[in-house]
Protein: Thioesterase
Amino acid sequence: MVTHPPVRLVLLHHAGGSRLAYRGWERHLPAEWEVRALDAPGRGLAHGLPLAPRVDDMALSLLDRALDGLDRPLALFGHSMGAAVAARMAGLLRAGAGPAPVWLGLSGWTARPGRGRAVAEAMTDDEVIDLVAGLGGTPSEGLGDPLWRRMVLPALRADLAAMAGFDPLADTDWLHVPVSVFGGRDDPAVSQARLAALGAAAHRLVGVHVHPGGHFYLIERAGELAGQITDDIREALRATTRDPRLTTRGT
Structure:
């Protein structure tokens, strides 16, 4: 019988979102795994924390919760903004903030530097909503709802500003972690060519997976995506067993 070690899989959500983006995912993942979907500062279970002005601040805040009581290999998966945060967390861990992750899953993101905080901060509320709606991330019934705007817009604006000021290639330690890349075939913001380029930049690429759908393809493809994540993490673990240097610093 083939046995697989238990893993802690940390799931990180998109801009303006919360851990609820991954509701029910544990049903699609191995029962022996510990699945932690985390809220970024300022929402959900982390509502008491201030919104993070930078991706680095977000990553540092989430690291504490990702590592709390860790007694097994750590894997990170993030979608869109969550992918940027996961990459930064992986870089911090490889630099000595904790045990390096055995796997990094990057979805709906291509590691392109942001367009500058000033541009993001100057956007009107309607421009922010139009931007996200164009990606399929805003329900039509929420667009004119004042309550929805009060609840969602502050976090969304803060997240967009944090992403706009982030240069993921300023520190490329995260590219040394075993990486899988995921995306939607019809994503208007993330082309298949850019997904392939991100995969090519990874030093230890596990796989590139393109699904039918747009930027939020994972809503409809959770079961299939979770199966790919499971297979890729297990492949990364097998590679680590063959060569433990794959998850150490400086390799």
Notes: The helical segments are 55-67, 81-97, 117-121, 125-134, 146-164, 192-201, 222-242. Strands lie at 8-12, 34-38, 74-79, 103-107, 179-184, 205-211. The two ends are 33 Å apart (CA to CA). Residues 8-246 form a domain with the Rossmann fold fold (CATH 3.40.50.1820).
